[in-house]
Amino acid sequence: MHTALPPEAAAAPQPLPVAAPDAQAFRHAMSCLGAAVNIITTDGPAGRAGFTASAVCSVTDTPPTLLVCLNRTASVHPVFAANQQLCVNTLAAGHEDLSNLFGGKTPMAARFAAADWSQLETGSPVLAGAVASFDCRITQTVSVGTHDILFCRVVALLRSDKHAGLVYFDRRYHPVARHLG
Ligand SMILES: NC(=O)c1ccc[n+]([C@@H]2O[C@H](COP(=O)([O-])OP(=O)(O)OC[C@H]3O[C@@H](n4cnc5c(N)ncnc54)[C@H](O)[C@@H]3O)[C@@H](O)[C@H]2O)c1
Ligand SMILES: Cc1cc2c(cc1C)N(C[C@H](O)[C@H](O)[C@H](O)COP(=O)(O)O)c1[nH]c(=O)[nH]c(=O)c1N2
């Protein structure tokens, strides 16, 4: 079905295309892509670590696999590279402060002290109150530009219907209500 734009929108000046966009223009446009917010955790021989990530994506359901993009300059990068296992904890509405804590320069102990954690198969921290947690082993790592793409085989998961979701859009957090009925 075709829906006509309201007259004021149709009359508004059209945005100009940006040729050969630089990093800033790319980020500005990427801020228009709403995304779930996740805290990615790991534990193992190299110790415990966690960071906030919106660059998380389903790859294939057979075998269950997702990907996480991790900046190689992040302080947590060597820990994830050594442990080769992680848990993707998808945040609920109300987790905004926790997301900022894991997205900043906060010491690792203070990040984990702000929430309750359990574990599934790999021993990576599983966040209490997450809408979903995917416990994974890293099967492949591909470097592109500044980031490592971690391909992660899901070995166990938890899912909850109890909480509203959380989306990061336009550089802000937005709660997302569940459809009732
Ligand atoms: N993929 C990422 O590494 C990523 C994603 C989101 C936010 N961040 C970091 O969080 C902070 C706040 O981000 P913001 O969204 O409020 O504003 P921003 O202007 O830094 O980013 C806008 C959007 O651009 C993308 N982006 C940002 N940094 C990126 C990077 N280094 N590589 C690839 N894509 C990137 C993301 O989609 C982000 O939502 C920044 O320090 C940013 O670097 C990083
Ligand atoms: C909402 C939001 C979303 C993201 C991030 C931040 C925030 C606030 N950050 C940045 C990342 O969390 C930060 O660099 C880490 O916490 C590592 O920081 P330290 O180097 O440990 O201080 C981030 N980093 C990354 O490598 N991949 C990603 O997808 C994201 N996404």
TrEMBL record:
It is an enzyme of class 1 (oxidoreductase). GO terms for molecular function: FMN binding; FMN reductase (NADH) activity; riboflavin reductase (NADPH) activity. Keywords: Flavoprotein, FMN, NAD, Oxidoreductase. Pfam families: Flavin_Reduct (PF01613). SUPFAM superfamilies: FMN-binding split barrel (SSF50475). It comes from the Bacteria. Its EC number is 1.5.1.42. Residues 30-175 form the Flavin reductase like domain. Catalyzes the reduction of FMN to FMNH2 which is used to reduce pyrimidine by RutA via the Rut pathway. HAMAP family: RutF. This is FMN reductase (NADH) RutF. It comes from Chimaeribacter coloradensis.
